[in-house]
Amino acid sequence: MRKLLLILALTGLAGAAHAGTDVTILARTCNNCHGMGGASAGTSMPSIGGLSRGYLERVMKQWKNDERSAITMSRIIKGFSDDEIDALAEHFAKQPWVSVVQKTSPELLSKGALTASDNCADCHGKAGSDPDVDTPKINGQWSRYMELEIEKYRSSEFKMPHRKMKKAVQEEKPAEAAAAARYFGAQSK
């Protein structure tokens, strides 16, 4: 069943196949990459369980409307209706946030804490666990995933619509941004 849902999602037929179905069935498509309950086990795939409903809705609709770049997500999400996106966002927002605390060197932790304090804390909170409304939690998020997202914000080849984030990333040196990602990845709370 999960393989069928993934195939339907990839071919853009998921919305038609899921009309009127339970959101937990719909969420199985997401679990294939983002993990059960949205707790990812892969370093380049973000955890989404426990993120705010507004943030999840906004990002998924940006992918659907080609306002944000993501090769796989842009193709998958186009098959979902706005109601299905809203239901998925609500479903994953109700899941617990699972931090995957990653070890990093004391030097990177110190450098990352300084960069995070100067450039990230206003929106994401000091440790990444107290974000502004519709800003994602990033404490214990996979640091590799965050580094990849930072690179997308640096590149003109990717559509990344959050102007404040784009500006903050452009003001940092690449090594500082990577250190900040490692710092937030090492935070449990």
Oligomer: single chain
The CATH C-level name of the largest domain is Mainly Alpha
Report the strand count. 0
CATH superfamily of the largest domain: Cytochrome c-like domain
Tell the overall outline.
Answer: globular
Task: Please tell me how large the radius of gyration is.
Answer: 17 Å
Average pLDDT figure? 88
**What is the H/E string?**
HHHHHHHHHHH
Give the structural class: mainly alpha
Uncertain stretches of 5 or more adjacent residues = 3-19
Largest sheet: none
Count of spatially separate domains: 2
Separation of the first and last Cα atoms:
36 Å
Helix tally equals: 11
User: What is the CATH T-level topology of the largest domain?
Assistant: Cytochrome Bc1 Complex, Chain D, domain 2
State the helical fraction.
55-70%
Strand content: under 5%
| CATH architecture title of the largest domain | Orthogonal Bundle
